[in-house]
Amino acid sequence: MNNNLISAARAGNLQELQAFISDHINLDEQDEKGYTPLIIACYNNRYDAAKLLLEAGADVNAQDFGGNTALMGVAFKGYADIAELLINHGADTDLQHGNGGTAIMFAAMFGRNELVEVLLNHGADTTLLDARGLTVLDLAAQQGNEEAITLIEKSMAD
């Protein structure tokens, strides 16, 4: 693993990232946790770095060793602009990690309701079940996230 590549992604260092891209470095190389440069850039709110990596061909649906994607990370963190970027580059809104969680489940559980709305607008499946048999609606209810419940119910009625 090229730790300099991961560091450049974490810092959002576009010059360094461009140099790696020019050197044809594998942009989907994973670190010891399975994080790719794209996952790291997104999780650290580095929009321009994420955009550069995506335009250079980074795998938008790459998963870390727990099955988490860049979209799941931004849903957890609440970065709607990066979620839109990822979805516009083909991110699968319905991929499930090791425990069956999806991006919209993360958003609902952590009160990232702008992300709940973004994901619903892009057709996220509200019927998927996690490993415990819970839907996004169940998870929002568990957390007392009334706004997410309202958004999800409205989406399901449409």
From TrEMBL:
SMART domains: ANK (SM00248). Pfam families: Ank_2. PROSITE patterns: ANK_REP_REGION, ANK_REPEAT. Gene3D superfamilies: Ankyrin repeat-containing domain. The keyword Transmembrane does not apply. Keywords: ANK repeat, Repeat. ANK repeats lie at residues 33-65, 66-98, 99-131. This is Uncharacterized protein. It comes from Olivibacter domesticus.
